């Protein structure tokens, strides 16, 4: 896949409307309330036992509040709050282990949050060893065991311990290296700290290192973000996630501490993104899609080149053949044709588990129509094309006729040469790669009732 990304700010502004990020289809706003845990038990009962597992553990605690954050988190300095939560987590792990029976082969593990390294080194070790007691973890080179890292929340031995426990991929939350920006969002971490953590991770042999950046934060300018990019490129992470900051203080209380007057203008923000894309491409980062970049030799880029990239609640992934099992508050599972979300508060989560129930809050059992549209959306986001004959053979339909209304909705993008449609396939052009999310919206049968109030803008 070439790197001839075409940056046209006028075109991007024209298409820059709210829409989902499609980590699932239907998206999480379409999940239905669950009055009990029966949908989740049905999902486990119908699971294909030949499918390997991807485990996600949500650790909600943060010692500091980052003002831009919209995650489900508990901000506290009281480290002792973690211990009762870990006991609940272990109870859920045992409950789901029982439903999985003897088919518990794990190929992917991810600790997210919150701040997973809020846990002490001993707690991290005990949690991983508990998982290892109850699941069979693959030792294949392709196995993917990752954790999100806050550089401020590392003890002297934490990265060494995590590597010894089997973690081979880590993600650092950097966001921006300018002090004024860090102060404005309450995430102060000097460049020297980022360098030290990065160097240590390299020395310990982590296979892939990701850094998160955010554009659109207070006091950012084109010049200031360019300085951050210079340093990041020098540090040479394997992957980069460059996210758009969506200022929604009416939805996310911490964002009310950000002064809207300090945010870059829409014009400046767009210029920052354009410069970022051009600069990373020049530094030999491959644009995977949806804010993600990777070195050409990284597994993510190689999976896309070979047509084996997938997308789920963890974003782009190389393990799309796994059933995703979530543990902890707000975590989401994807088991076959079921999506299942846990309770989002610790009290409700504890109440369910104490009553010997799974902590199911919402679910969705997808229809045939959902499956067809899910495949189209995933293929466009991962590989920029989808073939009609593949859909016809897999679902027993005439896909051109079946998707006629959606193909008609793509006409403006077709006229702007962002999409090509012929007898063989739907394809995103080089000109349209940055707007692939917009093309996916044409296939979303639920979008019109939600798009304005529920989603951030595409760019």
Automatic annotation (TrEMBL):
Listed Pfam families: HemN_C, Radical_SAM
Cofactor(s) required for function per UniProt: [4Fe-4S] cluster
Single Gene Ontology MF annotation: coproporphyrinogen dehydrogenase activity
Source domain of life: Bacteria
Catalytic reactions on record: coproporphyrinogen III + 2 S-adenosyl-L-methionine = protoporphyrinogen IX + 2 5'-deoxyadenosine + 2 L-methionine + 2 CO2
Cofactor binding remark: Binds 1 [4Fe-4S] cluster. The cluster is coordinated with 3 cysteines and an exchangeable S-adenosyl-L-methionine.
Residue span, Radical SAM core domain: 47-284
Listed Gene3D superfamilies: 1.10.10.920, tm_1862 like domain (3.80.30.20)
PROSITE patterns referenced in this protein's UniProt entry, alphabetically: RADICAL_SAM
Biochemical pathway: Porphyrin-containing compound metabolism; protoporphyrin-IX biosynthesis; protoporphyrinogen-IX from coproporphyrinogen-III (AdoMet route): step 1/1
Classification via SMART domains: Elp3
EC number of the protein: 1.3.98.3
Function: Involved in the heme biosynthesis. Catalyzes the anaerobic oxidative decarboxylation of propionate groups of rings A and B of coproporphyrinogen III to yield the vinyl groups in protoporphyrinogen IX.
Subunit structure: Monomer.
Family label: Belongs to the anaerobic coproporphyrinogen-III oxidase family.
Full protein name: Coproporphyrinogen-III oxidase
